[in-house]
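Contributing new records

If you add data, match the layout below exactly. Sequence lines come first and carry their own label; structure lines follow with theirs. Keep one chain per record. Anything else will be rejected by the validation script.
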Amino acid sequence: MAEKFTIGIASHGELRERALQIARGERRRQRGEPNIWFTSLASLARVLSEPNRQLLKIIDERHPTSLAELEALTGRRASNLSRTLKTMSRCGLVRLVHGKRGSVAPEVLVRELRMNLSIIV
């Protein structure tokens, strides 16, 4: 079932330092902290472009069982879908479920995002 998540924007360096602090046990995720991180508003905009949001809607409503089926539903090439879905998977927006004979079925994990953004950095 898709959930609601909070997104954050931080530089690669900030995200790396945060990950190291967590690995060293110096930091734990705080309540209300973002679940999904982007390195810029531009990267967020690319991942959540209108065509990609339409793709998520189709996946969520139609539950395709393979990239071939998703290709037929969307008219997008499998190579484009594969790249886009891998990016969305790294961001935590979708899960790629591996099936029989190498098929991959995407599953939407997030339906709604909330964002707290400091505009003065």
